[in-house]
From TrEMBL:
One of its GO terms (molecular function) is actin filament binding. GO terms for cellular component: cortical cytoskeleton; F-actin capping protein complex. It comes from the Eukaryota. SUPFAM superfamilies: Subunits of heterodimeric actin filament capping protein Capz. Heterodimer of an alpha and a beta subunit. This is F-actin-capping protein subunit alpha. InterPro entries: CapZ_alpha, CapZ_alpha/beta, CapZ_alpha/beta_2, CapZ_alpha_1. It comes from Adineta steineri. The lineage of its organism: Eukaryota, Metazoa, Spiralia, Gnathifera, Rotifera.
Length: 162
């Protein structure tokens, strides 16, 4: 689109909302300063005004939806009650992703309300080979909520494969 119109300002005004919605829906991965692992762009870590946060590095960043680049990093405080659960889950999920998804990335978001901990894990992997007429993408979201000391919880998932 940018090449056809040859006007960045027009592109930004015309399609920026559509690109932002697409990037959140597709869990687009982006490089974040300070770590090797990418952060996924999702509704769950959207702070508004094109700012997102990476719970792994505890920083927020401005995300350019057209260029798919992070910039303007700032410290961001995570939910302290859920953080031990979130970081442990993310560590294990990251290892799982590295073993099973060559081009995969994950982000785990945590939150709490009184005694209830909520975790949402996002996974994205893709491989595009249009010259070979082969493209594929995997996206999934796994959510759970539990109370400390509880021995059971319900895990719900959403899988989108292309």
């Amino acid at each position: 689109v940018r090449t056809l119109l040859n006007d960045d300002a027009l592109v930004r005004r015309s399609v920026s909302k559509a690109f932002a919605e697409y990037n959140r829906d597709q869990y687009i991965p982006t490089k974040v300063q300070g770590v090797e692992e990418e952060c996924l762009i999702t509704d769950a870590n959207d702070l508004s005004d094109s700012r997102f946060y990476d719970p792994r590095t505890r920083q927020s960043f401005k995300f350019d939806h057209l260029r798919r680049e992070a910039s303007e990093y700032q410290p961001h405080t995570s939910d302290e009650q859920s953080e031990p659960w979130r970081s442990t889950f993310e560590k294990e999920l990251t290892e799982y992703i590295k073993e099973r998804y060559t081009y995969g990335a994950c982000t785990v978001i945590g939150g709490s309300d009184a005694d209830t901990i909520t975790l949402a894990a996002f996974i994205e992997s893709h491989k595009f080979e249009p010259k070979n007429f082969w493209n594929g993408r995997w996206r999934s979201k796994w959510s759970l909520a539990f109370t400390k000391g509880q021995t059971e919880c319900e895990l719900t998932g959403l899988i989108k494969a292309q």
